[in-house]
Design a protein that fits this description.
This protein is an alpha+beta fold. The chain folds into three domains: 72 residues, no CATH class; 148 residues, OB fold (Dihydrolipoamide Acetyltransferase, E2P) (Beta Barrel), CATH 2.40.50; 70 residues, no CATH class. Helices cover 47% and strands 12% of the residues. Strands 1-2-3-6-5 form a five-stranded mixed β-barrel.
C-alpha cells in the first residue's frame, strides 16, 4: 500500500498529485497536521506502548479540531449574517420611506434621501432663518448666508421698508421647514449675489424648499438670469397657488411681493408671444451697453415688468433705487 502511494508522487504523476495533495492538505489542515504527527511518532518512537499512547492522543486531538474545522467552514452562519444584514437594511429603508413624507426627519435620513434624489448638492446645517427666503448655514465649519434662487417672499426684515403683507407668515413657514435642519444646497450658475450671499436651491430630503414656499403661497416666482434652471417649475407652482388663493394670494388682495411684481409672468408673455419687447426678458443677460439710449433701455425695462426692486439684469445703476434704467445713457 505504501509503495503504491509512493508511485503516485513519482514521475509525471507528481505534476498532478503533489499540487492536489497540497490543496487537500490546506482544506483539511487539522487532519493533515494529525497525519504528519502520527507519521513522525510511528517512525521515531520504538517503544510500542508509548507509541500507541501518543498515536491515540494525536488521533483524538485531530478528530476534535478537525470536526470544529469542518463545522466552521460549512456553517451557514456567514450566510445567515448576510441575510440578516439585508433584512435589516430593507427594514430601515421601509421605515425611512414613509418618514420622508412627514415632518421631523432625522439629519442622517435627510442626507441619504437628498443624495439619492440629487447628487449634485452639498450638505449644511441651518443655524438661523433670516426671513422667508434667506438663511444662515454652517457650511464646512463656516457660517454662510444663503439666498434662495428663483423665488421671493414678502419683506419682513429690511430696515428700508415696512413689513409687507404675509412677510411674517413667510418667515415663520421657512423656520418651520428648515430651522435647525440639515439641508442640501444646489448651485445654478452664479455663486453669490451682489450682497455676497450664496445663491442656492435648497432641499430637505425630497422636499424642494424653494418650490414648496411658492406652492403654498408664501413666495412668488422671480427670474434672475442666468440662474433660471427651475424657473418653469416655480412659475407653475405660483400659478397653482394663485388659482387656489393660497397664502399671500388670498390674504394680500392677490398682490405679489413688491420686489417681484409681475416680472415672471409678464416676461414670459412678452418673450414667447412675440410682444413689443426688443430682447428676451429672461436670457441672455443684458447691460446698458446693449442699448443706444436711455429711452430704449427704459422701454425694454418697462416692457419686461422690471422695477427698482426687481431688476434681474441690473439696468438700474442705483441698484434698489428709482426704477430708471441706464440713466447714464443719452
Amino acid at each position: 500500500m505504501i509503495n503504491e502511494i509512493k508511485k503516485l508522487f513519482l514521475g509525471k504523476k507528481k505534476l498532478i498529485t503533489i499540487p492536489l495533495a497540497g490543496i487537500l492538505g490546506l482544506v483539511f489542515l487539522p487532519f493533515t497536521i494529525g497525519v504528519v504527527l502520527a507519521w513522525i511518532i510511528y517512525r521515531n518512537i520504538s517503544n510500542k506502548k508509548i507509541r500507541n499512547i501518543l498515536l491515540t492522543a494525536v488521533s483524538l486531538i485531530t478528530l476534535f479540531f478537525g470536526s470544529a474545522w469542518v463545522a466552521g467552514t460549512t456553517s451557514p452562519s456567514s450566510t445567515n449574517l448576510k441575510t440578516k444584514i439585508i433584512d435589516t437594511n430593507q427594514s430601515v429603508i421601509s421605515t425611512i420611506q414613509p418618514t420622508i413624507s412627514t415632518a421631523g426627519l432625522q439629519p442622517s435620513v435627510l442626507i441619504t434621501q437628498s443624495t439619492i434624489s440629487n447628487p449634485n448638492t452639498v450638505s449644511a446645517r441651518v443655524v438661523s432663518v433670516i426671513d422667508g427666503d434667506t438663511i444662515d448655514v454652517n457650511l464646512g465649519g463656516s457660517i454662510k448666508r444663503v439666498r434662495y434662487i428663483g423665488i421671493d417672499t414678502p419683506e419682513s426684515v429690511d430696515p428700508r421698508k415696512s413689513i409687507q403683507c404675509f412677510g411674517k407668515e413667510a418667515t415663520a413657514k421657512n423656520k418651520e421647514l428648515v430651522a435647525g435642519q440639515i439641508v442640501e444646497l444646489e448651485k445654478d450658475v452664479s455663486e453669490t449675489d451682489r450682497y455676497g450671499r450664496l445663491l442656492r436651491y435648497v432641499y430637505i430630503g425630497d422636499l424642494f424648499i424653494n418650490k414648496e414656499l411658492v406652492l403654498q403661497g408664501y413666495a412668488s416666482a422671480v427670474s434672475y438670469p442666468p440662474d433660471i434652471k427651475y424657473q418653469d417649475v416655480f412659475r407653475q407652482a405660483e400659478q397653482q397657488a394663485r388659482s387656489s388663493n393660497k397664502g399671500l394670494w388670498g390674504s394680500c388682495n392677490g398682490s405679489k411681493p413688491e420686489i417681484s411684481t409681475s416680472s415672471p409672468t409678464t416676461s414670459q408673455t412678452n418673450t414667447t408671444s412675440g410682444g413689443a419687447c426688443k430682447y428676451s426678458c429672461s436670457s441672455p443677460d443684458r447691460d446698458c451697453s446693449d442699448f443706444s439710449s436711455h429711452a430704449e433701455a427704459q422701454t425694454f425695462f418697462n416692457c419686461c415688468g422690471f422695477t427698482a426692486e426687481n431688476d434681474p439684469m441690473r439696468l438700474d445703476n442705483i441698484g434698489i433705487g428709482d426704477g430708471v434704467a441706464c440713466e447714464s445713457l443719452p
